[in-house]
């Protein structure tokens, strides 16, 4: 995990995103334990409450679950939940913005598709 202390993104959100990235990459497979709040907070020299806040977001989202006295684990199906959430976000953040800008520049949807296809081929 990598935390950017200079970023405008709150640390707890960065932690949640980094854990999600680790799940997507297979570093934290489904139904396995992730590092504890203490381990993460010690490693990055941040408040354990900040780490817990990021993990709580993932618990609330059905990505992680707690096993009392043992720690946090990755839910079965977490990878697909993360992909679905990020696909929606990708559409909202990038595709809609791309199409809005294309409309301002009078670029047709077909031309946008052609540009994307050319870019992917490079």
UniProtKB/TrEMBL annotation:
GO terms for molecular function: DNA binding; DNA-binding transcription factor activity. Keywords: DNA-binding, Transcription, Transcription regulation. The keyword Ribosomal protein does not apply. The keyword Transcription regulation applies. InterPro entries: Tscrpt_reg_HTH_GntR, WH-like_DNA-bd_sf, WH_DNA-bd_sf. It holds the Pfam family GntR. Residues 9-77 form the HTH gntR-type domain. This is Transcriptional regulator, GntR family.
């Amino acid at each position: 995990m990598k935390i950017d202390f200079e970023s405008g993104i709150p640390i707890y959100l960065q932690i949640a995103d980094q854990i999600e990235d680790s799940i997507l990459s297979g570093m934290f497979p489904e139904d396995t334990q992730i590092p504890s709040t203490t381990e993460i907070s010690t490693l990055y020299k941040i408040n354990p409450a900040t780490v817990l806040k990021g993990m709580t977001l993932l618990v609330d989202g059905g990505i992680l679950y707690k096993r009392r006295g043992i720690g946090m684990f990755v839910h079965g199906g977490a990878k697909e939940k993360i992909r679905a959430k990020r696909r929606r976000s990708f559409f909202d953040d990038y595709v809609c913005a791309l199409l809005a800008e294309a409309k301002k520049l009078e670029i047709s949807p077909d031309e946008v598709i052609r540009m994307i296809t050319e870019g992917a081929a490079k």
